């Protein structure tokens, strides 16, 4: 019995260390994320048993394996095998990450929270680092713009990709990580609101203000809308039952909704400014929203060519670029954008079944978390589903791993198996 307890503690420490490394690897060069997945996978193999193996194949986790199978079948009619295998390689997470995440269930609730909060801590520290780096650079150079460029946020060191450039991070993906951190911290704040001192509450409000500032600086119109919606949903989860029975709660919720609406409008105004429904694909200098609409229109036209099976796992991008040329879409030909919409991207490459399956995965995971009252898990799905409307999220390893990992972690977090059950078994 003593030997079993010592063995359990030893294994648990390795599991914790592996997960800390995995959370940190989101901000390191890509190879470290792959190494962290391998390390966590090896650690998980030492802790997996018949019970946890069964959980790996439970609904809705098994939908990931079906999606991978669809992509694998898509290779059979793919001409561009190099791209096809590269896409499939990024999607290995669909089958391996749920197995890795199974070790999460042997940790107790406090340890699970520490791992999730560690991701938030790293995100927050890096956000301060990015802003601090830009401030120091301004004092050193006397300009907020890169040399010989000015007047546009693309060249502003305090904004968008320039802000996250010190670590070579994609600004919109960092916005996703920051939005998730915001929701996780806000959930903790509301859950333990009455136990916090005035000073701690003030520090929390400062942190929320800082997160909001960073979302604005990162110029993510999507998360300027999706994050406030997620906050409102979380507020209703916590206080919705009091909203219509106590006037102070109703007034508070309405006030917060008004403030968040103003925040969204401010964050999105650069995208909708001077917007016109007159879409001219040959235009050389369209606005951001017109570019996105042009990409989506071209994507839809590509889908019409083979809506049932798609072009093939590796041929989707080639088919889309070919359509840009046929439609004489100037920006599309020049920059060769992907679909900038994961729903359309799957449909272009692997047909209507891949599109429906991906959509179904998001819906069913969301409903599962609602049923389990795992509200942060639900909002992870909400944020990623929103993100997938404007980015081809599953084409990057950082996107695939984030989605599959955190949705799997919250599946195991919501399961009844905990640390005490593991010891007793």
TrEMBL record:
<feature type="transmembrane region" description="Helical">
    <location>
        <begin position="57"/>
        <end position="78"/>
    </location>
</feature>
<dbReference type="InterPro" id="IPR051533">
    <property type="entry name" value="WaaL-like"/>
</dbReference>
<protein>
    <submittedName>
        <fullName>O-antigen ligase family protein</fullName>
    </submittedName>
</protein>
<feature type="transmembrane region" description="Helical">
    <location>
        <begin position="375"/>
        <end position="390"/>
    </location>
</feature>
<keyword id="KW-0812">Transmembrane</keyword>
<feature type="transmembrane region" description="Helical">
    <location>
        <begin position="167"/>
        <end position="186"/>
    </location>
</feature>
<feature type="transmembrane region" description="Helical">
    <location>
        <begin position="115"/>
        <end position="136"/>
    </location>
</feature>
<keyword id="KW-0472">Membrane</keyword>
<feature type="domain" description="O-antigen ligase-related">
    <location>
        <begin position="207"/>
        <end position="359"/>
    </location>
</feature>
<keyword id="KW-1133">Transmembrane helix</keyword>
<dbReference type="GO" id="GO:0016874">
    <property type="term" value="F:ligase activity"/>
</dbReference>
<dbReference type="Pfam" id="PF04932">
    <property type="entry name" value="Wzy_C"/>
</dbReference>
<feature type="transmembrane region" description="Helical">
    <location>
        <begin position="20"/>
        <end position="45"/>
    </location>
</feature>
<feature type="transmembrane region" description="Helical">
    <location>
        <begin position="396"/>
        <end position="412"/>
    </location>
</feature>
<feature type="transmembrane region" description="Helical">
    <location>
        <begin position="198"/>
        <end position="216"/>
    </location>
</feature>
<dbReference type="InterPro" id="IPR007016">
    <property type="entry name" value="O-antigen_ligase-rel_domated"/>
</dbReference>
<feature type="transmembrane region" description="Helical">
    <location>
        <begin position="90"/>
        <end position="108"/>
    </location>
</feature>
<feature type="transmembrane region" description="Helical">
    <location>
        <begin position="249"/>
        <end position="268"/>
    </location>
</feature>
<keyword id="KW-0436">Ligase</keyword>
<feature type="transmembrane region" description="Helical">
    <location>
        <begin position="346"/>
        <end position="368"/>
    </location>
</feature>
<feature type="transmembrane region" description="Helical">
    <location>
        <begin position="222"/>
        <end position="240"/>
    </location>
</feature>
<dbReference type="GO" id="GO:0016020">
    <property type="term" value="C:membrane"/>
</dbReference>
């Amino acid at each position: 019995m003593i030997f079993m307890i010592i063995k359990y503690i030893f294994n648990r420490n390795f599991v914790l260390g592996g997960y800390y490394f995995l959370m940190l690897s989101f901000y390191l060069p890509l190879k470290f994320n792959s190494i962290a997945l391998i390390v966590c996978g090896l650690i998980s193999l030492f802790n997996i048993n018949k019970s946890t193996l069964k959980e790996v194949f439970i609904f809705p986790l098994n939908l990931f394996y079906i999606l991978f199978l669809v992509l694998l079948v898509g290779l059979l009619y793919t001409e561009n095998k190099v791209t096809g295998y590269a896409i499939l390689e990024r999607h290995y997470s669909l089958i391996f990450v749920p197995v890795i995440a199974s070790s999460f269930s042997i940790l107790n609730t406090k340890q699970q929270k520490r791992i999730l909060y560690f991701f938030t801590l790293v995100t927050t520290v890096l956000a301060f680092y990015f802003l601090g780096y830009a401030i120091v650079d301004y004092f050193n150079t006397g300009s907020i713009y890169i040399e010989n460029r000015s007047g546009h946020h693309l060249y502003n060191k305090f904004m968008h990709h320039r802000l996250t450039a010190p670590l070579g991070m994609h600004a919109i993906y960092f916005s996703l990580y920051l939005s998730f951190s915001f929701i996780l911290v806000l959930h903790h704040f509301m859950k333990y609101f009455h136990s916090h001192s005035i000073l701690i509450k003030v520090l929390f409000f400062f942190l929320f203000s800082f997160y909001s500032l960073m979302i604005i600086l990162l110029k993510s119109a999507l998360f300027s809308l999706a994050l406030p919606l997620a906050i409102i949903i979380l507020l209703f989860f916590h206080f919705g039952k009091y909203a219509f029975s106590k006037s102070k709660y109703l007034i508070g919720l309405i006030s917060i909704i008004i403030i968040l609406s103003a925040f969204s409008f401010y964050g999105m105004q650069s995208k909708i400014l001077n917007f016109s429904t007159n879409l001219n694909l040959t235009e050389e200098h369209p606005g951001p929203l017109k570019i996105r609409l042009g990409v989506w229109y071209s994507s839809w036209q590509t889908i019409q060519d083979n809506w049932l099976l798609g072009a093939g796992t590796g041929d989707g991008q080639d088919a889309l670029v070919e359509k840009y040329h046929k439609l004489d879409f100037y920006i599309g030909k020049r920059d060769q954008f992907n679909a900038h919409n994961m729903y359309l991207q799957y449909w272009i490459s692997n047909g209507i079944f891949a599109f429906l399956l991906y959509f179904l995965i998001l819906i069913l995971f969301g409903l599962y978390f609602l049923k389990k009252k795992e509200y942060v898990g639900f909002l992870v799905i909400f944020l990623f589903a929103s993100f997938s409307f404007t980015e081809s999220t599953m084409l990057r390893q950082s996107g695939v791993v984030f989605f599959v990992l955190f949705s799997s972690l919250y599946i195991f977090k919501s399961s009844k198996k905990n640390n005490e059950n593991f010891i007793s078994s």
